[in-house]
Specification:
The chain is of the alpha/beta class. 44% of the residues lie in helices and 15% in strands. The protein is built from 19 helices and 13 strands. α9 packs across α10 and α9 packs across α11.
């Protein structure tokens, strides 16, 4: 665990609501705790910088509170540690999690209903900040169960994105691929030059899962089939899944052989260094490259993953309030802060994400970020796998199966996993 203690000094005078610690979760700027632990997995450049910026803005607002940033590298490891802490009755004050069932599993803990929930509902915060009037229902629905809200959305990310080193493309007279056929043409050209065409970090199987189940499957089948399959309504051995896996195995021919020793940030570094030309990553990847000094359209290029144009496969990062939070008022104040345009406009331009609030100040976002905001409103929306699949055991197994697939390209092994576990969906 990487625990970095952050203490900041500053002052911001705001109106406040007064609430006893055991009451509804509402903001209290006059009374809070001395400590706030924020649990997350934002450790890569860009995402770490975005979190740091919003932590500083919180610390300026609540000067009496020291912030402990508990950052665990990789989504998968963070889920393991969070699960252990929640089960042991030792929750963090608040934690980052993807919306959907990754978050809501704590509401229906052990498969039971809300009576055994390990999260507090946050409807008072939603009402206080009028979030239901400024955050689209498609986003609020991902953090809601039985009409109650259990997470405050901080960002919206699109997974099906291809990033590339624009100088490498320009120097070789190449255009970014819009189809899979074009991808292989470009990949062959880079291979002939001794450049890795596609940088992949598969050490965390979650990344490989997003390449395939949150992107490539749309180009090989359809968004409708993908959504139906992930909710348990298809034949687990469907040929379209075989086709998707076979396609990804072909793409791996043009990737780095050491991919199992890298995480996505390591792969991004190779694109930045110019030893690799492209990578598939959610648009949080933009934040990584911006943190390195690159400019979109100058050094950095980005396009939809070939074959997925017009589709927006999205994930929502949110923060919840565990029951038994050791520093509950500080956590409540944190959640109220994240609900504001101030916090979202500090965080999202750095992270490369879309603000959930539609009244965000567009002028603080880059042209490509503004285009993404427009795409979110007009493209076909599909929830990411982690938002769609209810069973955490299935997700963990799929992550591991896809990590192994990136090593051995054994289609049959993945298909056997799906056939044996499909009843969990």
């Amino acid at each position: 665990m990487n625990r970095a203690r952050l203490a900041f000094v500053g002052c911001m005078v705001l109106s406040s609501g007064l609430t006893a610690c055991g009451g509804s979760p509402t903001e209290d700027t006059a009374k809070t705790d001395q400590t706030l632990e924020v649990f997350n997995w934002w450790t890569n450049p860009g995402e770490f910088d975005a979190l740091d910026a919003v932590l500083k803005s919180y610390a300026a607002r609540y000067t009496q509170t020291n912030v402990v940033n508990t950052a665990v590298p990789t989504n998968s490891k963070a889920q393991e540690e969070l699960t252990a802490r929640m089960a042991a009755g030792n929750p963090p004050d608040t934690f980052q999690n993807n919306a959907g069932w990754t978050l809501l599993k704590w509401v229906v803990y052990n498969g039971r209903d809300e009576a055994d929930s390990k999260l507090e509902p946050l409807d008072a915060i939603v009402q206080q900040n009028k979030l239901n009037t400024v955050i689209p229902a498609s986003v609020l629905d991902t953090v809601s169960y039985n009409g109650r809200v259990y997470g405050i959305p901080l960002d919206v990310h699109r997974y099906n994105r291809l990033y590339f080193n624009k100088k490498l493309f320009d120097d070789n007279g190449l255009q970014p691929p819009t189809t899979l056929a074009e991808f292989y043409t470009v990949a062959e050209a880079f291979k002939a030059k001794g450049v890795t065409a596609l940088a992949i970090g598969s050490k965390d199987g979650h990344a490989v899962k997003t390449h395939t189940w949150d992107g490539l499957i749309v180009s090989k089948a359809s968004a409708e089939f993908r959504n139906s399959y992930l909710t348990g309504h298809e034949n687990p051995g469907d040929q379209r899944i075989v086709d998707m896996l076979t396609e990804y195995a072909h793409m791996l021919d043009y990737s780095n052989a050491d991919r199992d020793s890298l995480l996505w940030g390591d792969a991004a570094q190779r694109v930045f260094d110019g030893t690799a030309a492209m990578m598939i990553v959610g648009d949080f990847g933009r934040g990584f490259f911006l943190s390195k000094g690159w400019r979109v359209g100058v050094e950095l290029g980005e396009v939809p993953l070939p074959g997925t144009s017009g589709h927006f496969i999205f994930v929502v990062d949110s923060f919840g309030l565990p029951k038994g939070s050791p520093h509950r008022q500080a956590a409540v104040n944190w959640l109220n802060h994240l609900s504001t345009t101030e916090a979202q406009n500090v965080f999202n331009p750095i992270k490369g994400s879309t603000p959930p609030r539609t009244d965000a100040d567009r002028t603080v976002y880059s042209p490509i970020a503004q285009t993404t905001m427009d795409d979110f409103r007009k493209d076909t929306l599909s929830r990411a796998t982690n938002l769609t699949v209810k069973n955490a055991e299935f997700i963990a197994g799929l992550n591991e199966a896809m990590r192994q697939f990136a090593l051995d390209r054994n289609v049959d092994a993945v298909m056997n996993f799906l056939k044996n576990r499909y009843d969990l969906l």
